[in-house]
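User: Good morning. I'm curious how phosphoric acid mono(formamide)ester would be positioned relative to this chain. Could you predict the structure with it bound?
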Amino acid sequence: MWTQRHLLGIEELSPDEIVHVLDAAERHFDRADRRSVLRGVTMLCGFFEASTRTRSSFELAGKRLGADVIHISGSGSSVSKGETLLDTVKNLEAMRADVIVIRHQASGAPQFVAARSKASIVNAGDGAHEHPTQALLDAFTIRRKKGRLHDLKVAICGDILHSRVARSNALLLSKLGAHVVFSGPQTMIPREFAAIAPGVKIARRIEEAVEGADVVMMLRIQNERLAGAMFPGTREYSRTFGLSFARLALAKPDVIVMHPGPVNRGVEIDPSIADGKHSVILEQVEAGVAVRAAVLALVLGKEK
Ligand code: CP
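Assistant: Good morning! Here's the predicted structure, ligand included:
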């Protein structure tokens, strides 16, 4: 039974709740038209940071379930004139928003708003903190491909320090019994990750992380969150930390390659791997609509 009014992070979810969302998403996956589920619901998407996949899949999910969907962005709204996030949300609430989906550059912004809002709040990515629906759609994709999550070796490689995707995935996958290994430049591996998601290991070299992996998840360098140079250069980064065919050959033969996007081709991943037979990158995107539909229906109490 789902009882949460908001979805703020994976940290707050129990393993049973995570499986509940994944099972609900299965029911949404093949059904394009379920317009009665959110009929009469007003859904506001406040994206104060750039997005292609998350924004469009939330909008599509809401519309496919019959909600009225409005979108606002930081640059095109009165935020650009100095209005605070809370005032923005209070004004959206006054228009009787039932659910507000928020992406914000500040870690903790959705939690701050949720404590002060009558609407359901869904975190669409907050700073370097969490991206819960990305982790849920990643888990959904892995479960569909592998039939399970427990006892899988999942290598998450790249800029771990600034990645909300890495954090949410480490939390989720550990809760469901997968073995997570991080790899990346030493300057981009936070040591406290072992405490946040028990059991997460750190590999000094990408080869060690990828060896025997069932899943390899590559991350881009989060240039928008870098305080200064953290590695010598792009070519050096690609040579030392990027996913090449030689490195991928160390993984299990049926390995799947994932990336939350946007992909920086030729930097963290060989473009032929991104487009190749092991890649499930576009399947992740497809799963995003079903997972977000399930999340919207659950937080609004339209699906138990
Ligand atoms: N994975 C992801 O969050 O992509 P967008 O930034 O395009 O939404």
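Residues 171 and 194 are 10 Å apart (CA to CA). Strands lie at 42-47, 68-73, 99-104, 120-126, 153-157, 179-183, 201-203, 215-218, 256-258.
Let me know if you'd like a different ligand tried.
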